[in-house]
């Protein structure tokens, strides 16, 4: 489950990172250069770990908690380290965080049983 999740997430983030350089979607998601670089890096890392269920589960947990922190920060500020947070960004960050945490732990529990 985590391998598939990491692959899908990786592809989405790489595509989002590339597209964001050309179409920043400023009215919905304010994709700055920093934001796009973060998306590209996240996507590449996700694709690199997606060959292993264990690595994908670990990535999902770590990535999920990082995105949860980003979502919480976005509730209190509209800009942080060159990334702008709009309402849609915050909602998406929370959804990605909870989905990642769920997949990471569900996959780990499945492996241990």
Number of strands: 2
Q: Identify the overall geometry.
A: globular
Q: Quick check: average pLDDT? A: 91
Distance between the termini: 15 Å
Strand content: under 5%
Helix content: over 70%
* SS summary, helix count: 4
Largest sheet: 2 strands, antiparallel
Tell me the count of domains: 1
- Spatial ordering of strands, largest sheet: 1-2
Give, in order, the helices and strands: HHHEEH
Output the structural class.
mainly alpha
Low-confidence spans: none
Radius of gyration: 14 Å
Summarize the topology.
Elements: H1 2-22, H2 33-49, H3 53-76, E1 79-80, E2 83-84, H4 87-112
Antiparallel strand pairs: 1-2
Helix pairs in contact: 1-2, 1-3, 3-4
Word description of this protein:
By secondary structure, the protein is mostly helical. The chain has one domain. The protein is 78% helix and 4% strand. The protein has helices at residues 2-22, 33-49, 53-76, 87-112; strands at residues 79-80, 83-84. A two-stranded antiparallel sheet has the order 1-2. The chain is globular and about 45 Å long. The relative contact order is 0.18. The mean pLDDT is 91.
Attribute tags:
113 residues, mainly alpha, two-stranded antiparallel ribbon, 4 helices
Task: Please provide a brief summary of the model.
This protein has about 110 residues and is mainly alpha-helical. The chain has helices at about 1-20, 35-50, 55-75, 85-110; strands at about 80, 85.
């Amino acid at each position: 489950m985590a391998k598939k999740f990491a692959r899908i997430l990786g592809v989405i983030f790489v595509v989002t990172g590339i597209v964001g350089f050309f179409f920043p979607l400023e009215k919905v998601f304010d994709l700055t250069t920093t934001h796009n670089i973060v998306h590209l890096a996240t996507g590449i890392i996700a694709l690199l770990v997606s060959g292993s269920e264990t690595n994908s589960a670990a990535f999902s947990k770590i990535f999920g908690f990082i995105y949860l922190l980003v979502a919480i920060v976005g509730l209190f500020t509209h800009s942080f380290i060159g990334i702008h947070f709009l309402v849609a960004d915050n909602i998406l960050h929370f959804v990605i965080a909870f989905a990642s945490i769920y997949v990471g732990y569900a996959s780990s529990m499945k492996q241990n049983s």
